[in-house]
Amino acid sequence: MFSKKHFYFYILAGILVLLYSSTIAYGASEQFKGKIYNTGMLKPVDSKTKLKPGMKAPDFSLPSVSGEKVSLSKFLGKKNVVISFVPAAWTPVCSDQWPGYNIAKSLFEKNAAVLIGITVDNIPTLFAWTKEMGELWFPVLSDFYPHGSVAKKYGVLRSSGTTERALFVIDKKGIIRYIDVHDINKRPGLETLMKELEKLEK
Amino acid sequence: MNKSNMRALTVIISMLFFVFQAYAVEQTPAKGEAFPNITLPFPEKADEKEYLGLTGKGSFKIPQIKAELIILEIFSMYCPYCQKEAPNLNELYQIINKREDLKNKIRIIGVGAGNNPFEVDVFRNQYNIQFPLFSDESYSVHKSVGEVRTPYFFVIKNTMDKKNTLIYSKVGSIQDPKQFLDKILEESGMK
After folding, report:
1. In this complex, is the C-beta atom of B87 within 8 Å of any C-beta atom belonging to chain A?
2. pTM recorded for the entire structure
3. Residues of B in contact with A28 (CB under 8 A)
4. Helix or strand holding residue B23 (H, E)
5. Residue of B nearest to A192 (CA)
6. Under CATH, what is the fold of the domain A33-198?
7. Pick from B5, B81, B116: which is nearest to A29 by CB?
8. How confident is the model at residue A9 (pLDDT cuts 50, 70, 90)?
9. What distances in angstroms separate CA B110 from CA A22, A165, B1, B30, B183, one per listed residue?
10. Is the bond into B132 cis (omega within 30 degrees of 0)?
11. ipTM of the predicted structure?
12. What CATH number labels B26-188?
């Protein structure tokens, strides 16, 4: 039977859920109106990476939307690298994250850093989605097949097959200096990332 | 359910009501309605304070801006449509500044929904924006205007009795700045 105690518990749980969902407002862009799939609230983090700052970043080579293959090792000794994994194309928070980075090119350059965007979507999907953002200055790579293999190497593949919303900062020597496996429902702030980049050798 | 349970339930429901009030998202104001009484921090730069005709410190409200018409844009640094719109708004700002009959009557301000001051600065620097932009990191302004999509434009008329009325609003691009200006002058009765 449904006891009194249970009844109050459900009411309180309901209040908490409603409160939480009412605090995740974000300024949705008119650009994507009607084109964004609403994922609802997701489990904030659904994987556990074994990588830690100080460790060597696993190398990879993936196809990019523009056609060329991009490997991490090509930046070795030349540039600091920011890898931005986002969960999936056409989803709410991701569709706002990269356009922000797109107008911060000079801030990356100031810190001798390049940005690499990665999702597990296939190239045609990424092509259409990134086109909607305007011209992106950074490469967007597809970790589609074998599915999520790079995400898996970095320990950010979720059980659903998408990735975490994760940032990895790798210095010129190929060493991981910062990891942020962010709450998937929230956009990591640009300011925090820039502060991490400023700590690196230029 | 017995009486004491009913009483407890009433207490819970009324608590719920108050909690929701605190988190309430308001309706987006419609044309002809009073614009929500939003509060913004004083701009730090002296020329921006002067542009808005503000004196003092702390925070201010829209009716304190010394102008007949205020064009308020809700934007986000992360929104590609707002990025595309930035040069268009700069052009509108220039057009108004060049018109002797209007340059002291119309003011443009932007509010960055969910953007912290750093993010607002990135946007300002990228597009060399001359009019004041404000950070709305906690989305409080965004909530009080009904969590509109971005960019969203509100044109507010300040009247002598310190009330402010919304005379025009629009989601998305203002399109041609000259035509937009004509439209809002017509709506405001300033033409």
Report:
1. no
2. 0.84
3. 149-150
4. helix B3-23
5. B118
6. Glutaredoxin (3.40.30)
7. B81
8. low
9. 24, 29, 53, 19, 20
10. no
11. 0.80
12. 3.40.30.10
